Amino acid sequence: xxxxxxxxxxxxxxxxxxxxxxxxxxxxxxxxxxxxxxxxxxxxxxxxxxxxxxxxxxxxxxxxxxxxxxxxxxxxxxxxxxxxxxxxxxxxxxxxxxxxxxxxxxxxxxxxxxxxxxxxxxxxxxxxxxxxxxxxxxxxxxxxxxxxxxxxxxxxxxxxxxxxxxxxxxxxxxxxxxxxxxxxxxxxxxxxxxxxxxxxxxxxxxxxxxxxxxxxxxxxxxxxxxxxxxxxxxxxxxxxxxxxxxxxxxxxxxxxxxxxxxxxxxxxxxxxxxxxxxxxxxxxxxxxxxxxxxxxxxxxxxxxxxxxxxxxxxxxxxxxxxxxxxxxxxxxxxxxxxxxxxxxxxxxxxxxxxxxxxxxxxxxxxxxxxxxxxxxxxxxxxxxxxxxxxxxxxxxxxxxxxxxxxxxxxxxxxxxxxxxxxxxxxxxxxxxxxxxxxxxxxxxxxxxxxxxxxxxxxxxxxxxxxxxxxxxxxxxxxxxxxxxxxxxxxxxxxxxxxxxxxxxxxxxxxxxxxxxxxxxxxxxxxx
Length: 527
Description:
Blueprint: H1 2-37, E1 47-48, E2 55-61, E3 64-69, E4 83-86, E5 96-97, H2 100-106, E6 109-112, E7 114-117, E8 122-130, E9 135-139, E10 144-149, E11 157-158, E12 163-168, H3 171-184, H4 189-201, H5 206-215, E13 221-225, E14 230-235, E15 242-243, E16 248-253, E17 257-265, E18 277-281, E19 290-302, E20 307-315, E21 326-332, E22 338-343, E23 348-349, E24 354-361, E25 364-369, E26 371-376, E27 379-384, E28 391-395, H6 397-407, H7 409-419, E29 431-441, E30 446-450, E31 461-465, E32 481-489, E33 492-500, H8 520-523
Antiparallel strand pairs: 1-2, 2-3, 2-4, 5-25, 6-28, 7-22, 8-17, 8-21, 9-16, 10-12, 10-15, 11-14, 12-13, 14-16, 17-20, 18-19, 18-21, 19-20, 22-27, 23-24, 24-25, 26-27, 29-30, 29-32, 30-31, 32-33
Helix pairs in contact: 3-4
């Protein structure tokens, strides 16, 4: 009996110990979880990071740099862990100090500033056309009748010297008979010379006059020959037709060279110059290329397509290119001057300034205002602000920008730029707008699940904003869809205007509207 009592007492003690341990574990976990989600209200944390041995001032979310937390944990704004701010990471001389572990978490990569020539091939399309400078017009030299046509249809190919038509000219009979009469007269050489001059005035050429004088017969007919080789573009003659002196009979286009009328995008016109080398390809002759050069740029922009026409002259061996053919054109711009080049993704373009982050070593990064130039492919020209051999951040620079804003580095840089004398000072503030759903309203800020914000290159996300200076409108509540405007401040982003969006407006018409199923879990807090 005593043995059973001892067993029962032992089981009760073990159960009490287990319950107490579970309660302590639950309380500790709950305290740790809530500690990470509550902003710090006291002084510096004073804790030591076991991984680095450095003193931790506080924890923060790099994507929402305003709130500070006194314990590590998961960010209440984004789906990411809070990042510690160490006591020695206050930066120096405008630099941003980021630990190697944080750099690895942010995926920061750098690239060298190199010196080179920014040139790339411009790919455009165009169509083949006749070379209008290689055109011959065939006209009737005298009034007469078309007795015979040797070339009877447009687009027939002709060779130089080939007979085209035969004309009967009645006026030539009289002047030729007058010549023969003067030659038979005694001492009529002067009259014969005058008759020869009248034959020239009637439209006879020297070859026809020699034929008349050598044969002693009247030749009232003339055979018209092709002056060049090519294609009959226009045919205005028919057998039996009466024609006047100077009437057009044929229009012949040469095919030894052709034009390609190419459509150059307006943004690429600065890279194309007359004389630039051109390589053309056409689906009609796969695998074969045609070489040429840009002859001229026509001074007119198509208002509908925003393109400029370029006239390209190509050699046409074996006359394979025909007018109307489609062609793909590769333009090689002339080699420009050497300049500093960086990957285009290294430049943060805010609309009022262009910033790159230069790696200064030892985990330090310096924001630098730069003046950019032309861009081709994945490179952009830097005209001022950098030197060859420096390393710039090409991946994760937006998170470095948030880190810099947290420390006030960007604000100091902007203030320094504003204090310098400028002739054309950009606006001090840039407003951005979007649409989102109100998730939380508190004294410290407003949490919104918003759609894309193109002016900041942001995707959909959930984040906290500082409330408007005058407070939120009274008709805004949690769960409402609102259109908002906000601006960048030193420690985050502040709402400047909030307007409810009525439910009667179609979702497709609401700017930046998000799918109904979008929430924190689906968006992941990433951009």
